[in-house]
Structures are given as structure tokens and as C-alpha cells.
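[Meeting: bench + compute handoff]

Bench side (C.D.) handed over the final construct sequence. Compute side (W.E.) agreed to return the predicted structure before the next meeting so the bench team could plan truncations. Sequence as handed over:
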Amino acid sequence: MSDIARKIVAQPLTAAAFAPFGQVIDTAQVASRPMNAGMARRFHDLAEIEVIGDGARVVVGLVEAQPYAMPLRLNLVERHPLGAQAFVPLNAAPFLVVVCPDEAGKPGAPRAFVTDPHQGICYARNIWHGVLTPFGAAQDFVVIDRGGPGTNLEEHVFDEPWVVHLPAGG
């Protein structure tokens, strides 16, 4: 198959478009509430981190991610059958999000999204997705996902890569 037939153009990330794959983490989704005697604003309950299995727990980590060249040659996707996985950027830069519907246990045709600055995402449990993909510059993220016993990573390598392009002007 040619690269033309396997071309994907990323679209802006919206809660509605991303809903089949998880949740958009965006302070524009909820009203803030004051805390610390009005010196801080809290944006509460932005995403649910589902984890399953004996001994499962939610863990918080930090990722320092290097930028990818665009267009992206997408060879690999992964999923986490035992827990959701969230990425919250620590700097104001967009990043690329790639997801695939499940088709009989294998990833279907990918969809790609570009976040707005400060938007994060939470992949639902067992959703096929690309790796963390900043572009343009290195980016730091808080990652929230499942810790505990059990195999919580499944990878799939495509026979032929997909080519993911940023939207015009992106």
C-alpha cells in the first residue's frame, strides 16, 4: 500500500471527537474553585483513572519527552488492558495524540489529534494509542496510570507504517 493511502491528517482535539478513546483533560471543561484562602484555583475531577486487578493502584510519574519529526511515521501502537493512562503537559505546547479503534483485538485505522497548549488526555483502559508524541520541542508531562501486578502493556507493530501529518499551518 502506498503512503498516500495510509495518510492521516491530525485534527484539533475536542472532548466530543476524543470521547470513544478517553477523556480530554482541559481546565476549560470545569469551573475552577478557590482554595488556599483565594491564592489558588483548583480545577477538580478532570479525568477518571480507571484501574482493575488485585493490588492495582493509581501512580503518578513524570516524563521528559523528546520531540518527534513530522510527518510522523507511525509503526507502533500500544494499549493498557488493566488501567487508564493520563498525560498532563507541564509546559504550554501542543502534542500529537494518535488512537485506534479496536477491531477484533487488533488496532483499526488510526485517528490523530493535536492538543491545544495545556490540554492533556486520559486514554481509557484498553484503548490502542501511539506513544507520547511532542513535536517542535522537548516537553515534560505528568503521567498518571496503573501500578501493581499483572501485565498492563500490549504492543502492536503495523505491517506498513501510517504517515501522520499535522493540519495545515500546524
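W.E. noted at the follow-up: Helices lie at 15-18. C.D. will use this when planning the next construct.
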